[in-house]
Amino acid sequence: MDTHWDGVRLHVVTGKGGTGKTTVAAALALALASGGRKVLLVEVEGRQGIAQVFDLPPLPYEERRIAVAPSGGDVYALAIDPEDAMLEYLEMFYGMRRAGRALTKMGVVDFATTVAPGFRDVLVTGKTTEAVRRRGKDGRRVYDAVVLDAPPTGRITRFLNVTQEVAGLAKVGPIKNHSDLVSGVVKSPETAVHFVTLLEEMPVQETIDGVAELRAAGLPAGGVFVNMVRESLLPPRVLDMAVKGRFDVGELALGLKSAGLADSADASTLAEALVDEVVEHARRTAIERSERESLDAVDLPRYELPLLADGVDLAGLYELAESMRTQGAA
């Protein structure tokens, strides 16, 4: 399928808290897996957000299938635990998993990742990029794509810029080599960092700032997913009149009576209440229009996802995934 992201195998999803970042990441994984592909959905913040979105028990630190995508295809999930990732790291590079468990009991692992938080990021991004690179016995990639439910926008550049973050921690050796390997994937054309926002001032501004910071660090900006978009219910002329305070209450009352929706005694009261709703809707629509114009400045592909009236459930995820596919995001 011709999409905006042909060749991208690592989709990093970030966004301000409350924008629906995990929901968008889950829907994107479903969209990418559609048609018989195999996709891994990864979370790194320890919130078990994936399990909540898919209505599953808490996920262990292992890759397991959690959903079947539209038209076939499988979505696997992995909730990365930094402690287990560090044990895996010690075994992989030093052959000392048992010693690592002893260090865990002593609290040394927590101490190391607290003193050097960049090391924690290397562990979790390293596990993710390993899944991107991994090949089966037949030489083919194990996963067609990996979707990373990443930290919020304010921390995303530091989280991904692992080479710089561990520069003061290790100049040579396995840690340095490992971070260079991670950076090679993250900064390559195989990676795209997508931003999730709402049409509100703070999330939009944080998205604009995040894109600028990402570009300054030489990291690949992807697309912008505008979440929870509400369809405008009235024509532009009516909205403009409402915002300017020129909406005719009397005309609306007559219309309600003519349509048989209210009698003469109730028409005016009902009309006044409806006008308040119309004015609020018009003001919100004007703000959303302004925020869309602000997002034009980032010059990235943009996808608008509908507000789900019944909330986010599994059916809602499939609806969002189809919307993404229709717009060329997957």
TrEMBL record:
GO terms of molecular function: ATP binding; ATP hydrolysis activity
Gene3D superfamilies, A to Z: P-loop containing nucleotide triphosphate hydrolases
UniProt domain ArsA/GET3 Anion-transporting ATPase-like: residue ranges: 10-173
Keyword flag ATP-binding: yes
Keyword Protease: no
Keywords: ATP-binding, Nucleotide-binding
Domain of life: Bacteria
Record protein name field: Arsenite efflux ATP-binding protein ArsA (TC 3.A.4.1.1)
Organism of this sequence: Nonomuraea pusilla
